[in-house]
Amino acid sequence: MLPSLKMESIISYNASNPLLIDKISSIVFWRRSAAYIESSVFLPNNICGFGFTLFGNLLVKNDSDFQTMPAFGTRNTLSKPSEVKTSGDFLNISVRLTIPNGLSLFTKTPMNLVYEDDAMSLNDIFSNQEINDLVDWLLHTDSDIEKIQILELFLVSKLTVCQPPLFTALIAKIHDVKGCCSITQLASLYSTSERTIHRLFNKFVGVNPLSYIHLIRFRTLLNSSSNPDLMKNWVDLGYYDQAHFIKHFKAFSTKTPAQFFGKKPSEKVSDFYNL
Question: What are the residue ranges spanned by the domains of the chain?
Fold first, then answer.
């Protein structure tokens, strides 16, 4: 049984299997006690993955109310922030993937179908028997390390899909220039069509390439400084005007840059997905 905790605990482990080291950024164990009732905000993140809630429930706010997410599934963290809370003594194990979206390495299901809704059960991606067996093994092991070994064996067994070199090159370029590029520029640079780029992103990421470019700009800002002088540097970030910049930043964070990086930024922003 999950031990009683007085506070939130987030422990991150590196992958140990040689076949997964370059594909998994971390395996995160997220624990909360039943007494932890505050909600947290998850900001959009390109390191998508999937998780297993072994104890308690994960709830995400939709419009005006919180709804329970699939216990074993993946959430859409690519395009919009979400407010979450947990119930009961809570344990979630999440696999965070290095390559966006790394889940496409383990299934032939197109990512635009996986992320068509806010969440999808892993039972709709893998077989019910596979997920039931995996969860049973996770529940019957005591240590985090044993659980990681079980997860890694499962992932290695599903590692069947290779991503095209053009796609990996496009992703690398977008990250190298910190999202300061256009689809037209990418198509010209790699002698391909914009339609091909859109098709690759729909299949392997789950959002269109422009949305992904904007996401990388946003994540670059978050990682650059705790208090950057954003209002004066929006041109350097690839935006044509300040209003355009503020609109995109607010879409990803629900706040203007001035509000987000002000003296009292939101205390509810969670470290779980935002580091």
Answer: 9-158, 165-274
155-169 pLDDT, tens digit each:
999 987 778 999 999
DSSP 161-181: PPPPHHHHHHHHHHHHTTT--
Looking at the structure, give the CATH architecture of the domain made up of residues 165-274.
Orthogonal Bundle (1.10)
d(CA 228, CA 113) in angstroms, rounded, equals 36
% of the chain residues with pLDDT over 70: 87
Report how far residue 136's alpha carbon sits from residue 141's, in angstroms, rounded to the nearest whole number: 9
Q: Do β-strands 49-62 and 9-13 pair in parallel, antiparallel, or remain unpaired?
A: unpaired
Residue listed under structure tokens 């959002």:
207
pLDDT band, residue 273 (cuts 50/70/90): low
**One-character DSSP codes across 34-99:** TT----EEEPP-S--EEEEEEEEEEEEEETTEEEEPPSEEEE--SSS-EEEEEEEEEEEEEEEESS
pLDDT of residue 130 exceeding 80, the answer is yes
CATH code reported for the domain at 9-158: 2.60.120.10
User: Which residues have a Cβ under 8 Å from the Cβ of 221 and sit 6 or more positions away?
Assistant: 228, 230, 237, 249, 257
Extract the tokens encoding 5. Answer: 């905790």
Tokens describing residue 70:
């699939």
The CA distance from 83 to 60, in Å, is 6
3-state class (DSSP) for residue 20: coil
Q: Output DSSP code: residue 80.
A: S
**Has this prediction a pTM greater than 0.90?**
no
Instruction: Report the amino acid identity of residue 235.
Output: V
Spatial contact of 102 and 111, defined as CB atoms under 8 Å apart: no
Burial (Cβ within 10 Å: 0-12, 13-18, ≥19) of residue 66: middle
